[in-house]
Amino acid sequence: MTKKNPLKLFSFVLAGCLLSVYCSSAGALQGESEARAAEQTEIAFENATGGYHTYLSAFSGRNFLATDAGATIRETGVFRRGDSVTLDVLAPADMLAELTLDYRCEKPQDIVLEMRINGEIPFPEAGLLTFPAFWSDAQGTRTDKAGNEFAPEQILYEKSTVSKARDYSGRYELPFKFVLTAGAHTVTLTVSQGEFVLKGAALSNPEQPGTYKAPEPSRNESVATGVIVLEGESPSLKNDRSLVSLSDGGSPAVSPGDPVTRKLNYIGGANWKKPGSALTWAFNVETAGYYSIGFNYRQNQLLGGVSYRHLAIDGQTPFEEARRVKFTYGSAWRYKTCGGESEPWLFWLDAGQHTITLTATAGAMSEIYSDLRDVTAQMGNLYVDITMIVGETVDIYRSYELFNQIPDFNGRLERTALALDEIAAKLEALQEKSSGSTVSLIRNAVRVIRQMLNNPYSAHRYKSGFYDVYTNLSALMGTMTDTPLDIDRIFIFGAGSQKPEISPSLLSKLGFSVKRFAATFMGDYSSTPGGGEDNETLNLWVSWGRDQAQALSAVIQDGFVPDSGIEVNVSLVNASLIQAILSGNGPDVMLQMARTEPVNYAMRGALYDLSRFQDLPQILERFAAGAAEPYKYDNGVWALPDTQSFYMMFLRTDILNSLGIDPPETWEDFVAAATLLQRSNLQAYLPYTQITDSGTVNTGVGGLTLFPTLLIQSGLPLYNAEQTASTLTQIGQIQVFTEWADWYTKYKLPKTMDFYNRFRIGSAPLGISPYTLYTQLKAAAPEIDGRWTVAPISGTRKADGTVDHSSAGSGTGCAITKLSKNPENAWKFLKWWISPETQLRYSADLESVLGPLGRIASSNLEAFRGMNWDADMLEQMVSQHRQTVELPEIPGGYYTARGIDQAFWSVVEQGNPPADSLQKWGAVVDREIARKRAEYPNGSTPEGEGKCGK
User: Fold this and answer.
1) CB distance 939 to 945 below 8 Å
2) Which end of the chain has fewer CB atoms within 10 angstroms, the N or the C?
3) Contact assessment for residue 47 and residue 377, using Cβ atoms and an 8 Å cutoff
4) Sheet strand arrangement including 237-238
5) Cis omega (within 30 of 0) on the bond before 256?
6) In which region does residue 83 sit, left (phi positive, over 0), alpha (psi from -120 to 50) or beta (all else)?
7) What φ, ψ does residue 264 adopt, rounded to 5°?
C-alpha cells in the first residue's frame, strides 16, 4: 500500500478551497454585474419608452367625447418665476383636451411652466411646458453708410398672443393632449422661467379639420380676382427671435433684388428649421371669394429630402392636408402652388383682415425621430453596460462572453437591429431618392450590430464600431427633424386669376450677373461701414469672424449711434495693437482682448487708464466681485471684463443614479465617486490643458487647470502681496499641488479626454468643464436631454464646516487705446457695450445667425441671467458665476501657467516628487517675473508717452 504524502494532500485541499472561494467570488461578482446591468436595462427601458407616449397609450381604449371644458382663472396679473396660476376646470364628460394660453411676455424669454392636474404631473414633459415669447420687427429699415440693409431689431410683441402646449423637440407633431375625466379638476401652472401676463386659458377639444374638399359648384359665382403679394422678409409676428430677415444678392428671382448693395429680401434659412418655429403674415382682402396660395421658396439644404410647414389661416388649420405642406429640394429659387398647379387648393376668404401662418413641423419625420430617439437611448445604455465589463480599451485576446455578462445582451441587440431596419425603411419611403447619407448611417449601424450577434464570443471586438455608429446616430438626432426653408414671397391670388409670373428673363439674369461681378471689385471686405473719419468717430478693431462683426455693427448702428450721436467704424483686423501704435494708425477701442493682453499692453503704455473715469466703481457693480482683477496694474484699471467663463460640474444623472452616486460636494467626494466609476470601467474628468503655444497661455492661468481653483478654495494666493513674485515655492501651495497631482498619479484620472463625446455616450458620466459646454450639449446632444444636469464644482471644506465652491475664472477684456483722440466717447461706448441690454441683444443676434453655439459668455450678471437657459439649471449656474474668483495678471505672469504645466508634467509623466518639481519651476517663474519687472520698472508710462517695446 502506497504511503500518502501529507504535504501533497494539504496542497490539494488548499487548492480546492481556493478554487471554491474563487468560484464563489466570481459568481458573486457576476451576479452583482448582472443585477447592476439588469437595473440599468430597466432604467434604459423607462427612459426610452416613458413619458407622453406611454401616458397616451394607457388611455388608448377609452372613448372620449369631442367637447370643451370650462376653465376659470383664480388669479390674474403678472406671473414670475415661482408663481403659480390655478385654473378651475369643469369637464362635462371624459375628454382629451389641449391647453391653450392667451398671454403676453414681459421679458425676452420663453415661458416654461410646470403643469399639475389635481396635484400630479400627468407625464414628464408636462413638467417643462414651453410657451414661446412672440416677436415683431422694429419699424424702419436699418442701413449703413453704404446703403446695405441690416435685419431690423427684434422687439417683444406688445399684444397678447395665443399658443398651445406642445413639444418643440420634434418628437410629437401635434400639441399635447391631456386626459380629463368628467367632473371638476384643478390645474396648477407653476412658472419655472419667464415673466408674463395671462389673459386667458382654455382646455379644449383638439382641432379636427377634416380632409380637403373642392368647393361646391353653388359657390363658384364667388370667384375672386387679383393678386396679393406678401414679402417674406416682412412678417407681422414670429415666435422665435432668431427668425430675422436675410439677404440674397446672387439671384434676380428674389424681390427686392440688388446686385450691388445688400437688400433684405427673404426670411428663413438655417434659423427656420426647428419644429414649432412659426412666422405669421398679415394681409387684407378687398373682395370675398376663393383664393389660392403660392410661394417663391428655396429648400437647398435637405438633399433629396422634404421640408414641411403647417399652414394656418387666421390661426385655424383649414383641412388636414394643410398640416404638412411639402417643400421639395432644389438648388435655386422655385415656385409652388399649394395643392398643385392643375388643381390648387382653394381657400375661402371674407373681405377684411386675415393672417397666414407657416409653422415648421417635422411632419412624417416626427414618428421616425421618436423611434430613433428610443433606439439611441437603448444603444447608449448598452454601450455603457459593455464599457463596464470590458473597460475603455478592449483586450481583443480575452473572452468576455458579453452574452453571459450582460442580461438579455443578444435580445437587446436583436431588437435594436430590427428597430433600425424599420426606421431605414420608413426613411426611404419618405425621401425622393432611394438612398442617402441618413439611410446609409442607419444601415451601417445594423451591419455592426449583426456582426456582434453573429460573433457572440468576439462581440467585444466590435465595441469601437458600435461606438462609432452610436455617435453617428446621436449626431443625426440633432438634425433629423430640421426642416430649413427660405421664403421670398407669398402670393394669394384669386381663383379667377392666372398664376403670377415670377421667373426672371434670360436678359435680366445676364444683366444682374454682370453688375454683381463688377461690384466685387469695389467692395470693402475688411470693414463694416460706419461713420466718417472726424475726431468724433470711433474706430473699433475686432479679430472675429465676419458674421460676428456684422452682428456687432448692426447693434452699434441701431443702438449706440442713434442714442449717443457718435459714429463707429468696425474693422476686421489681424494685427496687434503694438503694430498699430508703431505705425500710428490704430483703433480707439478693442473688444474681447485675451486675458493676458491688457496688462501686457498697459505696462508698455499702450492703453488708457479707466480709473480716471469717476463712474468706474458703479460700472464694476455690473459684474461678479473682483471680475476686473486681471486688468488691474500699477494702480490703474486698463480694461473691463466683457466675457467671463468658469467651471461647472456636469453629471449624467441616469448613470450616476443607477450606480448610487450622489453629486460630489467636496473633492474627497469627487475622488470617491471617481473610484466607484473606475470599478465599473467608467471615468470621471477634471480639466487640464497642456500648453503647446502662446495662444494657450493667453487664456489665463485660471482657465487651464484646476490648480488655481484649488488655491482659491484653500485661501492661498498665487502671487505675493506686492505681486513681484509667485508663491509657488511656499509650503501651502506645494501641499495643494501635491493633492492635485495625486489625482492623476495615485487615482489615475485621465489627463486628456474628449469630455463632450465621452459624457454624451456615458463612459464619463461625471466631470468638470467650462460652463459653455452646456450650449454644446443642448445644441448637439438631444438624445440625452433630461438625463443630465449641472451643479457647482466640488469644493474644499473650511474649518467652520462650510464648503467653498469657488472657481477660478477666465475670459476677455475690452479697453481704450492710447491712440484714442476722444477717450470720453470711447468710455461711453465701453459702458454701452457691457450693459445688460447690449449684451443680451448682441448674443441674441449671434444666436439668430449661428444658433445656440453663438451665445456669448457675457460677464454681465444681469445679461447672463437673462439668457435662455434651462430653468432647472439656471440657478446652479448663477450661483457658480457669483462664486467666480479672478486671479491677477502681472508682468511676466505668462510664465506662471508655463511653470505650473512643466511642474505637473514632471510629476505625472516623469515620476518626479511634486515638492521638488514645483519648487524648481516656481523659481524659474520668479526669475522671469523679475526679468520682466526690470525691463519695465516704472509701470505704465504717463499719458501721451508710449514705449511699446517687445
Assistant:
1) no
2) N
3) yes
4) 154-156, 135-137, 237-238, 278-285, 352-361, 306-313, 325-328
5) yes
6) beta
7) -75, 120
